[in-house]
Amino acid sequence: MESRLSDGARQQFNRFVRQYLQLQLDLDYPDEEYLRNDAFQQSLHDQLFSENEIKKAPPARYQLRVLKELTRRIEQSIQDWDEEGISDDLMNCLSTLLASPPTSEMISVQQKSYVTYTLSSLPLQDIQDQTTPTITLLEARNLVAASGTTGLRTWEAALHLGNYLCANQDSLVRGKSILELGAGTGYVSILCAKHLEASHVLATDGSDDVVTSLSTNFYLNNLQDSTVIKGKELKWGQALVGGEHPQWNGGGGIDLILGADLTYDGSGIPALVSTFGELFELYPTIKIIYAATVRNPRTFEKFLEACDANKYAVEELKFGIKKAELQEGPFYSDQVPIQLCLITTT
């Protein structure tokens, strides 16, 4: 059905679908001229609400909110009810969702949800089908999960770091061995392993819950049997070698270390920088690329001061956030300051 859409309709359709699958709260609903079109409505149903097509659907509560608003807008768009109408398939989906017992908001925010990120800056996976690369993750979308960790959702800094890596795939990732600190949902690690052709990726985190969840997200991206990527617990500030493990990472090399939003809690900075030191000692030529959402400038300053005290060079990497209205996926705020840094030994 989508192939029957005009270029303008397809552009708005793709943007809306990608925002929906990423569980965005503020969606850019298509224009009325497209909404009242039968083929456009059928494409929306097939891509977003068809049980036969959508295997990793958003939560029912989210589906209902979007579909109610979508059908309201379609109804408003109709100029001639004798010639136009609302798709029976969409209305049947709405009736089914309305008839289902609603999940309370308190429960729904604690449940994990499928979130699909579109990597619009990468080449199409299938030119004939116009298939854009994606990453699907199971996330806890609330700010802090019940376990007390913030690592079960993907934050803006990880998305921005991912865009930077996509733009610099050849020089930074392809054929390289990657270590991610504070991997969280594994977005950056999965991106490197699945789409950017890294030779090996080690996704690490200090939380047992987060490391356990990584295997699920590897599976969702067909990486469960991959020898390229694996998860590992790494607690900052603790010795990487010694005792029963005289060789860290099995003696394997590391070319690049990545991290996103590791300094939101200033109390963890000393342990993080200590781990930098351990890694520089093991791999003197490595580079660290760090993306930080600067929510508290003083906290970020403490991080820079800690790096300086340990004689690490910090270079700002210039890579702007695309304006929100121009983003085609992944989607994230262009109003949040995100700092990208290259950290090396001096």
How would you describe this protein?
- There is one protein chain.
- The protein is an alpha/beta fold and 346 residues long.
- It has helices at 7-21, 32-35, 38-49, 60-77, 88-99, 105-110, 156-167, 169-172, 187-194, 208-220, 269-282, 297-309, and strands spanning 112-118, 134-140, 177-181, 200-205, 229-233, 256-260, 287-293, 312-316, 338-345.
- The longest helix is centred in the N-terminal third of the chain and has 18 residues, at 60-77.
Question: Strands, helices and their partners?
Answer:
Layout: H1 7-21, H2 32-35, H3 38-49, H4 60-77, H5 88-99, H6 105-110, E1 112-118, E2 134-140, H7 156-167, H8 169-172, E3 177-181, H9 187-194, E4 200-205, H10 208-220, E5 229-233, E6 256-260, H11 269-282, E7 287-293, H12 297-309, E8 312-316, E9 338-345
Parallel strand pairs: 3-4, 3-6, 4-5, 6-7
Antiparallel strand pairs: 1-2, 7-9, 8-9
Helix pairs in contact: 1-3, 4-5, 7-9
CATH class designation of the largest domain: Alpha Beta
Cα distance, first to last residue? 57 Å
Q: What is the rounded Rg?
A: 22 Å
Q: Assign the CATH topology of the largest domain.
A: Rossmann fold
Low-confidence stretches: 144-149
Assembly annotation: single chain
Which CATH-level-2 architecture of the largest domain? 3-Layer(aba) Sandwich
Structural class: alpha/beta
Number of helices: 12
For the secondary structure, the number of strands is 9
Number of separate domains: 2
What portion of the residues fall into strands of 2 or more residues? 15-25%
Query: Percent of residues in helical segments?
Result: 25-40%
User: Main sheet, how many strands, which sense, barrel?
Assistant: 7 strands, mixed
What is the averaged pLDDT score? 91
Can you say what the CATH homologous superfamily of the largest domain is? Answer: Vaccinia Virus protein VP39
Protein name: FAM86A protein
GO cellular component, one term: cytoplasm
GO molecular function: S-adenosylmethionine-dependent methyltransferase activity
Pfam families: Methyltransf_16
